[in-house]
Design brief:
The complex is a heterodimer of chains A (about 260) and B (about 290). Chain A is of the alpha/beta class and about 260 residues long. Helix content of chain A is about 40%, strand content about 25%. In chain A, helix 4 crosses helix 5 (about 115-130), helix 4 packs parallel to helix 6 (about 145-160) and helix 5 crosses helix 6. Classes of the chains: A alpha/beta (about 260), B alpha/beta (about 290). The complex binds adenosine-5'-triphosphate (2 copies) and magnesium ion (MG) (2 copies).
């Protein structure tokens, strides 16, 4: 069953230098409980699409439906709580003047989750769920490493118990060991809590191992959509083929796959 | 002779709960024309090391720094803050991990680019700045560089801002380039292009590069030598082929095993933090590739 559906969605920005067509006529279904990856060219409209799903940007054309209902660009608190965001830039995503704990707590207060007395413990539990010590809630974002900030962003999204999480490069700032832990955690939470993910990333090796399906974007358009294994073994477009063929790898066996794809069908 | 020589660098931060030690004696050197990678744990001290080399943490009151950092034979601690500042953006430039924290949100890219170019060449005319900026942006494979120059950072995608920063860092032909996670927001084809640009700079100007990255595939393809850092200590270092082909330290081994593979073997199963991660440093000698 589809949880989120995008119907002929477009976004054009008017700028001093003329219109920028960031997203062009994209239609896409996200199934309940799946992890759908969005990959593609830098500047191809992935973050813009995420912002429309989240209600941060209004579409220029098209419709977004969630759980069978049309979602307006202006959302109610309940609608906002159901779709959460983990942003691409962890530093700008967190208010520098607030402690990280206060940033996480804000969501709990806004959506009135749990009693007041339970909220600080809930904040600490959210930090611990992503592998950070609970007492880190007292720190300012500037006193955290890039990877620590990124995990705070994930903790903040999880804390309000959403149905869908849009993750924009959630693990690119993490070392691969921490990344593996966070990905396993995301994967486990998805199964346990029945979460649905829209996972935006440039890391195709991560996508290969976590996504059910992959959508490939280029110049604002959805150019290819398929099951993960099928798309890797037999990409339908030259662009997807060239993307997989350019992934920097560490293993011999990976080199073989890459070379086979680079050579063409 | 090395261009950058870091010896026994220590760092701690003074906070409400006393001193927090971050670096426990890091030693690292880079020769002109050499591409050296620093990889390792998130939060282990890579970016702070870079910020010390750039002379930025010296200005922060809560930071306590020990050991020595020599750039072109000069002890950075012996320079006045003003002289250290003079090196920044001309002799030493840096691609920051988070472009939005570096780029000023209220000025156009064009204006910020001109400022960078004028650090090296104060009299540069506006038209010349613009031409040079467009040329550099085009080299990072940014479509429509003229639009980018007229834009504010929020009007650009994550990867476009990252390429703007790369272009700015390369524009003045620094002697030392510090690239802190320069490719996280780039698709793999654009990333390959930016790596090519950095290699060209190295080949043409003997630039030394300190390359900080979590992407071990990129490190394997780009770097000549690698240092692996864990909790403020270097745990393994040597030529790239030796460290990747024969990782000896328990932490390096765990790191390599955790790299997700495009062959799709599932999410790697990661070991818990182990005592062995704190074992003494492993050094692979140049050429022989034998670990000591
Ligand atoms: N607020 C805005 N005003 C004008 N143009 C914008 C704005 N936001 C995005 N754009 C433009 O829309 C296009 C798509 O940007 P978007 O951030 O969605 O790309 P992306 O696919 O997320 O790229 P990346 O992988 O680099 O993060 C780009 O050309 C960008 O310059
Ligand atoms: N200004 C500061 N005050 C206090 N602690 C700090 C400050 N800046 C950094 N730290 C701490 O120093 C440690 C090293 O941080 P650094 O940013 O160098 O990590 P990193 O290796 O670059 O990690 P990442 O890969 O996640 O970017 C971290 O534990 C961080 O929390
Ligand atoms: Mg983006
Ligand atoms: Mg860092």
């Amino acid at each position: 069953m589809s949880l989120l559906s995008l119907d002929h969605l477009s976004k054009t920005f008017r700028t001093a230098g003329g219109p920028v067509h960031a997203v062009r006529d994209v239609s896409l279904e996200v199934k309940s409980g799946e992890c759908l990856a969005i990959v593609g060219e830098s500047g191809s409209g992935k973050t813009t699409l995420a912002n429309m799903i989240l209600g941060i940007l209004a579409p220029s054309a098209g419709e977004i439906r969630f759980d069978g209902q049309a979602l307006p660009a202006r959302r109610t608190a309940t609608e906002r709580r159901r779709i959460q965001f983990v942003q691409q830039n962890p530093l700008s995503a967190l208010n520098p003047k607030r402690s990280v704990g206060a940033s996480i707590r804000l969501g709990l207060d806004t959506y009135r989750i749990g009693g007041r007395a339970e909220r600080w413990p809930a904040v600490e539990a959210a930090l611990e769920a992503v592998g950070l010590p609970g007492e880190m809630r007292h720190r300012a974002p500037a006193a955290l490493s890039g990877g620590q900030r990124q995990r705070v962003g994930i903790a903040r999204a999880l804390a309000v118990e959403p149905q869908l999480i849009v993750l924009d490069e959630p693990t690119s700032a993490l070392d691969v060991l921490v990344q593996a832990r966070v990905l396993r955690l995301l994967d486990r939470l998805r199964r346990e809590r029945g979460l649905t993910y829209v996972f935006i990333t440039h890391d195709l090796a991560v996508v290969r191992n976590i996504a059910d399906r992959i959508a490939v974007f280029r110049a604002g358009r959805l150019i290819e959509l398929g099951e993960t294994a099928a798309l890797f073994n037999d990409p339908k477009t030259d662009y997807t083929r060239s993307l997989i063929g350019a992934v920097p790898v560490v293993d011999e066996s990976e080199l073989e796959l890459r070379t086979r794809l680079a050579e063409g069908p | 002779m090395s261009l950058l020589d870091i010896a026994d660098l220590t760092l701690s931060f003074k906070g409400l709960s006393g001193l927090t030690e971050v670096l426990h004696g890091i030693s690292l050197s880079i020769a002109p024309g050499e591409k050296v990678a620093l990889v390792g744990e998130s939060g282990s001290g890579k970016s702070v090391t870079a910020r010390i080399v750039l002379g930025l943490l010296q200005e922060q009151k809560t930071a306590r720094i020990g050991g020595t950092v020599r750039f072109a034979g000069q002890d950075l601690a012996a320079l006045s803050p003003r002289d250290r500042e003079g090196l920044r953006g001309t002799e030493i430039s840096m691609i920051f991990q988070d472009p939005t924290s570096y780029l000023n949100p209220v000025f156009t890219i064009g204006r910020q680019f001109a400022e960078v170019l004028r650090r090296r060449d104060p009299g540069l005319a506006r038209a010349a700045c613009e031409a040079r900026a467009i040329e550099m942006l085009a080299e990072t494979a940014i479509p429509d560089p003229a639009r980018v120059l007229g834009s504010y950072p929020f009007q650009l995608s994550g990867g476009m801002n990252q390429r703007v920063m790369i272009a700015m860092a390369l524009a003045n032909h620094p002697r030392l380039l510090i690239a802190d996670e320069p490719g996280t927001a780039l698709d793999v084809t654009v990333q390959a292009q930016t790596l090519k640009l950095m290699r060209q700079l190295v080949d043409l100007h003997e630039t030394a590069v300190l390359f900080i990255s979590h992407n071990l595939g990129v490190v394997r393809e780009f770097a000549d030598r690698v240092y692996v850092i864990y909790r403020g200590r270097i745990v393994e270092d040597g030529p790239t082929a030796a460290v990747f082909g024969d990782p000896r330290h328990a932490y390096t081994q765990a790191l390599m095993a955790a790299v997700p593979r495009i062959t799709g073997d599932g999410l790697p199963d990661v070991p818990e933090v182990s005592e062995a991660f704190l074992a003494p440093k492993v050094h692979h000698r140049l050429r022989s590739g034998r670990a000591t």
